[in-house]
Input
Amino acid sequence: MNWHREGYISKQFGRFTGYSILIGTTIILILPVFFMLAASLKQNSEYMSYPIHIFAKVPQWSNYQAVFTLTPFVKVATRTGLLGITTAFITMVTSSLAGYAFARFKVPGSSRLFSIVIAMLIVPGIVLLIPQFVMFARLKLTNTYWPWILGALGGAPYYIFFFRQYFMNFPKELEEAAEVDGCGPFRIYWQIFMPNAKPIIATVIIFAFNGVWGDYLMPLIYLNANKTLLGVAMAKAFVDPKGNELKTISMAANVIYVLPLIIVFFFAQKHILKGAVTSGIKG
Output
């Protein structure tokens, strides 16, 4: 009897500890977002006031209106969104093709080539920044969106790995049956593999879009002010004639900036989680 009681107490204690860690971690992660929301409703003079007040005395909803009146927010957001969607779609197609080839075709040297792709995962992007800029500058492609498009045409090592792992889980019999019916490799990829890879497709598109929407460094380097993307445009926009940053309006802009990503993740989280789980670590 005591043994069962001790086991029950131990189980409940372990469950309590686990939930406490999860709740504490969640609170830590949510706090910056909470303070951003609170700061977006303050007056600029309240932002750094002492003693600190978490909530605004009088909510300044006009801060959100000012985001659209002080900057061409809709125009720049539309430009960024279109580039993000285009880049995400191209990245998904090229990465899935490469992942399909690595998963289903066994040719001499394919394993070594895939090892090179995996090795690129550990190369920091900042290391390649200067060589890429020099290359695009010599090709006279700076102040254009070609660096994003050409980068997407080459696929992305992480997404190639993602698709390859997922496609390796497909039964060989399914592919052999399609070949008997006269399907070629591309038709098998397009009509069999891709329709059954919706979780991976959704995950890759969302992550690739987020990479463009949330990017600051590449637009800062490659684009002039009249063609820049949303992250850089917001960072430079909210300054008064005296050069002082309008911090609370900037916080309101940040809320609007991250809102599409939160909404997309909220509706697509099942696909993202399913894609991450079903990709497996096979091969």
